[in-house]
Structures are given as structure tokens and as C-alpha cells.
Automatic annotation (TrEMBL):
Pfam families: LytTR (PF04397), Response_reg (PF00072). Transmembrane segments: none annotated. This is Response regulator. InterPro entries: CheY-like_superfamily, LytR-like, LytTR_DNA-bd_dom, Sig_transdc_resp-reg_receiver. PANTHER family: STAGE 0 SPORULATION PROTEIN A HOMOLOG (PTHR37299:SF1), TRANSCRIPTIONAL REGULATOR-RELATED (PTHR37299). PROSITE patterns: HTH_LYTTR (PS50930), RESPONSE_REGULATORY (PS50110). Keywords: Phosphoprotein. SUPFAM superfamilies: CheY-like (SSF52172). Residues 2-116 form the Response regulatory domain. It comes from the Bacteria. It comes from Thermophilibacter provencensis. Residues 132-238 form the HTH LytTR-type domain. CDD domains: REC_LytTR_AlgR-like (cd17532).
Length: 238
């Protein structure tokens, strides 16, 4: 997922960038200090979601959101503002969410969930979606995604685990998340993606952190980031 932060205040942009990076769900983050700069950057590269301040000099965030409707494939808009009184107007311009400053990490993740639902997957061949290219004994092989239990980030690689084997992939965890999210996979941590179909138990350890047990992987416990707990429980129906 690619995001753009549009805010005339640099500290606000930096804070939101930090929170977005902490989610582990954003591949690329662009920044703009004005509506004009935001449009110029959209012409240079696609953004899936725009986090947009409302009160900005010259062109307001609300005006920019209205103008985005003229684009063929406009980004989803999430307003990020210190003012609550524009909420109704925001949804009239088809905003996907409305966050109040300072931004709460859980609310940010909820907004990203909505964005993920809104975004339509890019057209791909059947094989590229249903199987993942990996390296095994120096050979390229294709692993069916329904055999994958979980994926772990390992340096510049992703380590893919099935019930009885382990493979390396040069595809980043962020790109694997995008590819696999529609198939029941969930980014539970900066370093882990889990196939929810194979989650067999959820344990709360003494520090209050959740750990997942994965069917077919004996003795393996995967920690859940505190920022992802609410979204994970919702995905598991807890």
C-alpha cells in the first residue's frame, strides 16, 4: 500500500509518518505540504491512500478531496485533523475515515483496514496469486499459498513456512502482505504474516502480549504487535 501525507505542518507529517511506518502495512510514504504539491506528486506516482489535513493555506483539504474525484483512479481519502466539526462534510466528499489529532494508533489501523477493503487488487495472473515463487536448494519452485502457515522476515529475504518445509523468497514482507491479504493472511507483527486458517490458539502472556500457536508448526509461538491486537481479534472473530 502506498500512502501520501498532506499537511502544511512538518511536525504533524513526521508524527504521522512514524505511526504509519510502525504499522508495517505501508510500502511507500510520500509527503506534501500543500494541495498543489500533493497533486504534482500524484501525477508522478500513484498513491492508494491520502492522509489529508483540512485546514491548509490557499486550497483546503476539503477542496482537494473534491478535486480528486476528477481523477480516473483517485486515492482513498482519510482526513487527519484537530477539528471535529468537519466530519459530516468529510464523508460527503466520500472520505473513508476521519481521524482526530493526535492520532491514536488503533484508530489508524482501523482506517487502514477500511482502505485495504476499498482498494481493489491489481489484476494478476492466476499463478502469481495462487502460488509464491521461492528458492529451494538453488532452484526456483512455486509454493501453493494454501500450504503456507506463516512468513517471517529474514534480513533481505522472506522465510516461508509450510507444515513440513521452509523456503526463502526475495519478495519483501510488505509485498507478500498485499498479495496474500485477500486470501486470509494477516500481518500480526513487523516481522510476521500468518495464515489465519492455521491459527489454533491465542495466548495472553504475562506482559499482556498476545501469542499465536500455528497448526502444523510444533512449539512455534508468534508474538502479535500491540498495535495489531484489535484488528487481529476482529479478523479472528474474538
Amino acid at each position: 500500500m502506498r500512502a501520501m501525507i498532506v499537511d502544511d505542518e512538518a511536525p504533524a507529517r513526521s508524527e504521522l509518518r512514524f505511526l504509519l511506518e510502525e504499522t508495517g502495512r505501508i510500502d511507500d510514504i510520500m509527503e506534501a505540504s500543500s494541495a498543489r504539491e500533493a497533486v504534482e506528486k500524484l501525477m508522478e506516482g500513484k498513491a492508494d491512500v491520502m492522509f489529508l489535513d483540512i485546514q491548509m493555506p490557499k486550497t483546503s483539504g476539503m477542496q482537494l478531496a473534491e478535486a480528486l474525484h476528477k481523477l480516473k483512479n483517485p486515492p482513498a481519502v482519510v482526513f487527519v485533523t484537530a477539528y471535529s466539526e468537519y466530519a459530516l462534510e468529510a464523508f460527503e466528499v466520500d472520505a473513508i475515515d476521519y481521524l482526530m489529532k493526535p492520532v491514536d494508533p488503533d484508530r489508524l489501523n482501523q482506517a487502514l483496514d477500511k482502505v485495504q477493503t476499498r482498494i481493489k487488487p491489481q489484476p494478476q495472473s492466476h499463478s502469481s496469486v495462487e502460488r509464491i515463487p521461492v528458492v529451494k536448494s538453488g532452484r526456483k519452485v512455486l509454493v501453493p499459498i494454501d500450504q503456507i502457515r506463516y512468513i517471517e522476515a529474514k534480513d533481505d529475504y522472506s522465510c516461508i513456512y509450510t507444515d513440513n518445509d521452509r523456503f526463502l523468497s526475495t519478495i519483501s514482507l510488505a509485498k507478500l502482505e498485499q498479495k496474500l491479504a485477500p486470501h486470509g493472511f494477516f500481518r500480526v507483527h513487523r516481522g510476521y504474516i500468518v495464515n489465519l486458517e492455521y491459527v489454533e490458539d491465542v495466548e495472553v502472556i504475562s506482559s499482556g502480549i498476545l501469542q499465536l500457536g500455528v497448526n502444523g508448526i510444533e512449539g512455534k509461538k508468534i508474538s502479535v504487535s500491540r498495535r495489531r491486537v484489535v484488528a487481529l481479534k476482529r479478523a479472528l472473530g474474538l
